[in-house]
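Rotation project, supervised by the postdoc (A.L.). Task for the rotation student: set up a whole-complex structure prediction and record inputs and outputs verbatim in this book. Inputs entered:
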Amino acid sequence: MIGGLFIYNHKGEVLISRVYRDDIGRNAVDAFRVNVIHARQQVRSPVTNIARTSFFHVKRSNIWLAAVTKQNVNAAMVFEFLYKMCDVMTAYFGKISEENIKNNFVLIYELLDEILDFGYPQNSETGALKTFITQTGIKSQSKEEQSQITSQVTGQIGWRREGIKYRRNELFLDVLESVNLLMSPQGQVLSAHVSGRVVMKSYLSGMPECKFGMNDKIVIDKQGKGGEGATGQSIAIDDCTFHQCVRLSKFDAERSISFIPPDGECELMRYRTTKDIILPFRVIPLVREVGRTKLEVKVVIKSNFKPSLLAQKIEVRIPTPLNTSGVQVICMKGKAKYKASENAIVWKIKRMAGMKESQISAEIELLPTNDKKKWARPPISMNFEVPFAPSGLKVRYLKVFEPKLNYSDHDVIKWVRYIGRSGIYETRC
Amino acid sequence: MTDSKYFTTTKKGEIFELKAELNSDKKEKKKEAVKKVIASMTVGKDVSALFPDVVNCMQTDNLELKKLVYLYLMNYAKSQPDMAIMAVNTFVKDCEDPNPLIRALAVRTMGCIRVDKITEYLCEPLRKCLKDEDPYVRKTAAVCVAKLHDINAQLVEDQGFLDTLKDLISDSNPMVVANAVAALSEIAESHPNSNLLDLNPQSINKLLTALNECTEWGQIFILDCLANYTPRDDRESQSICERVTPRLSHANSAVVLSAVKVLMKFMEMLPKDLDYYGTLLKKLAPPLVTLLSAEPELQYVALRNINLIVQKRPEILKHEMKVFFVKYNDPIYVKLEKLDIMIRLASQANIAQVLAELKEYATEVDVDFVRKAVRAIGRCAIKVEQSAERCVSTLLDLIQTKVNYVVQEAIVVIKDIFRKYPNKYESVIATLCENLDSLDEPEARAAMIWIVGEYAERIDNADELLESFLEGFHDESTQVQLQLLTAIVKLFLKKPTETQELVQQVLSLATQDSDNPDLRDRGYIYWRLLSTDPVAAKEVVLAEKPLISEETDLIEPTLLEELICHIGTLASVYHKPPSAFVEGSRGVMHKRLPARTGSGEGTECPDVGNAAGGSAPEAAPSIIPSQGDLLGDLLNLDLAPPTTTGPTPSTSGMQMGGMDLLGGGLESLLGGDIGGSPAMGAGFGAAPAVMPASLNAPVGGGLGDLFDLGGGVGMPMGAYIPPKTVWLPAMKAKGLEISGTFARRAGVIQMELVLTNKAMSVMTDFAIQFNRNSFGLAPAGPLQVLTPLGPNQTIEVSLPLSTVGPVMKMDPLNNLQVAVKNNIDVFYFSCQYPISMLFVEDGKMERQVFLATWKDIPNDNESQFQIQDCHLNSASNKLQGSNIFTIAKRTVEGQDMLYMSIKLSNGIWVLAELKVQAGNPNYTVILNESKYISSLRFFQ
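Outputs recorded:
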């Protein structure tokens, strides 16, 4: 199991050091600094073995978190724990920075004591932790409160406490998708996938039982047989994972998503689709080499969605060779600029409706070089945001039941929003 | 209020000030002071002097202050054990506190104070806490048992805590169950045979129920524990799999990987024709792919594991090639791993796509990545025959870029392609030759030289090319020198008329001017071969090479099976068994996959031994092992592709390869019987088993060793050199590991040492000394370790020994006590040298003398033993290599008798009779020792 946990600043000074096992000595702290933080070359692996001691590290801005062990630990678990640790710290004091860590070191030690016992991760849900680890010192609790805390920390629903009350029961659902594309110059899709997240922000009283439904092909087909008649499109989900509040065995058996949500924000599910993706933009590049000192580039982008919708924050990045000496750009829409420091022409368009087309052409002048190495022609990449889900996912319902309190599903105000963003959206040229 | 100010106090007299503040009456001031102490502790300052003052602050009802004091205690109690006792009372009292949070805090902290005296006081409170009404206290106490076990295992057993812990597996609270499982698993690891985690269908059922209810971490503990269980039959296996599969949708990647581990293991038991088997295979792919959208560090862990899974069950991910395509922004470690998996998944169906990708990668910036991409193109060519042509042309394109490292890498892989498809792509040789000058890496130079030598007849100026390399012969690395030697010999055999001068030049360079024994030996072999029988030389050197197989860097099957049992853990990240990087007894237990026991097959006894045997690799691996191919190397087969292979569990395999070279290789060279060499290898493999067990006499033992090695392998040239063994483990010597062996080279006894620094600091000032010993062995010079030995560095030293040191009889006779000193300390160890080291070169006795002596020796100086399974051919030749000389040979009643003599370094003669029955492979050896008794007296 984890033998120790250290937090360093960018210089390699220790900010937090907590040792859980005897086999980890003080010299381990230095070994990591010398061999990893101060190492000259780039980090070649997140796991380093120095003198039979293994170091796992993650970096957040310029802070290093390192878990140390001499045993054959579950490596995936160690990394998951380090991420979780970052989440917990962020939930307590905001951004992870040297300043914040120094200001909260007592709190961090207290947290480490609670969420890692003898190197075994324990309940690390912030909702539960915040009930008894506070920044303002422990409030004197009544006996009931104490046992409530302990049963929550160890209980089946460790992520939510009892007795939450809201005057207005409200919930927000965000379907956030990032669409990834790699396209050949000829317009052939080399790979495309959507990775999406359903983020839920809930302000619900009591212990509400929720049921979430979407246009999952498997569910719709099943219902279709039942005679209900499925309307609209359904989508094939390659794979999905759920927040720990979702009852996995129920999903496995019936493919229904039921859960008691944590209070506030949580990522309910992640999913991935590869079939029938709506690619919001198509990029058509045309690069022509005119002699040895000139390149002509023409790029056409086409929007491919309903004309009533508007895409935003569109940015097309056209790489230029390293020996570029000057660039002339003409574009029909938006603004385009050659950024020498980034070796690219950046073309920005604020808004663009569906089923439209726009074009940019540029003349790139090159310095003559005797460098034999050919220019590698990095792909043209694109950024954008669209108000729909490129995977075609639709939320069909989110039902809320709270048998003990007197509010029903109809009283809950629900909001649903779809945002599609570009992930790595590249076209080779 | 900002706490960061505590980090900045560095003025003098700080400790005094803190002391005063700690003893202050004001609570706030006290708390501030403790915070300062903790901050100093964190940055590594020694604040142990404040121990009594801090402990005085412990009795408080302020929980925050209490926690801080506890933190201090955990850090310093070990250095101040007597003072730590002061804290015991407070702990015991806190364990009775009405607040469960305080009870748990007390028992948790007490477990972390690793002082023997405290543990005694810990027992009673712990017992109470294990049965506490509050689950929070129970789950903390469960882990505390593991802590206590780590400090004092006996105490935990005596106090019956293990049974209580077992009871907690049936606890109503899932988190208590999970922690109890974690604690028991850890304790069980240090008692491999204790059957502590008595897993049976009932307890498994309890675990599976808890699995649905506990936290993500608890699920990992339980799944990792489940993976150690072996179901009784395929039905049980299937039902567990069914209950584990929902975990594949968990958001926590570690839960997913642990579930994959359980499924991969239990799948082994399912009959392949079962519908469920296919379903399960299909279910495994999506979650594995999803892992690749996790954070980069987790992607790395996932990719290392997928690499194993793909080798074990390629069918799972065969359609998922695209997800392993490298993204422009992936961290380099993710890129390299993805590339590895792409090659493994490459097949005829997707090769076009893969090649297009690889070509893109070859133009990236990271040197390692580009190299690997180029290498990958070569491997695709070897793996998918249809693509070979395209691969070769891609490689040629890359060579045209003239980027130095790309060219070198391309040449290395093209050599392998030539090997795989002989007489197909040699037209590109001209292009390769153009780049000769730019090659500066040994591997690329060696590859190019190999190509020139191999195709000497097609390259007009082959002799010029090779000659150009010869100029700087002594500056080349061994790899290049060996290759150059062989290539020129090949050239000579192909064009003998023009290149005689060249070959003589290289032979003399290799044999006379070089002090590298490998090079010299190879030089001599070629020289003799060429001078005695050029026809045989041609047969040997230009022999047809076996084809190289397509999968080159597969992990050895038994290791792969073990690693599959460790999916998700560090072992699977390193691709090494836990014993390779975990110290002590923990985790050295080898895990195995269960055997397939279909109920239809009627295997009724799932005996462990059988199970293990059944799961052994079904067929010998079709890969050519990269170690142990020195023989091949000698014959210039160059079998080993330059990729690294996973470490084999036993290093002796490598040593055997070395033996094989001398034995089999030479034998076949001299006898012209190439077919014989594999048999030699096999004979050697069996040799250790036939060592007579009844031999107690040290000399006899040594000889037996020698005889059966001699018989098994045959070494006319070199003496038997035992494989290196670890004499001084790093744990015993503050990080210095010494392994070594003895050898007799050119009449000088050598002690060959490998020093490895496994500590974190640099080691210098090495020196060595021997205790008095039976044959007066002593170092003939100082230990030559000139450069300081940095962390994780290894150095090989050979120390010449003389036999003129002080004499003292040792038991056993060949025992040697050694002291090694470095800048850290002096370390002692003892080792045993093979007696054959002491056999001197002038041990050949005159026939008459032999006869006379033989008769003179009394019968009680005689000992007899048998050696089995020896190969007769040229036994005496082989023995002569070890300075055992055959005096006479006669045949009596169908038995061959060989008479031999040996002379020890201290002048003692040993005479031996070797009786060989025709048709019976057993040898009887009768040893007669002239001065054996008297020498013993002499010692006393």
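Student's summary: Helices of chain A lie at 26-37, 75-93, 98-103, 105-115, 126-132, 143-154, 217-226, 248-254.
Supervisor addendum: The longest strand of chain A covers residues 189-203.
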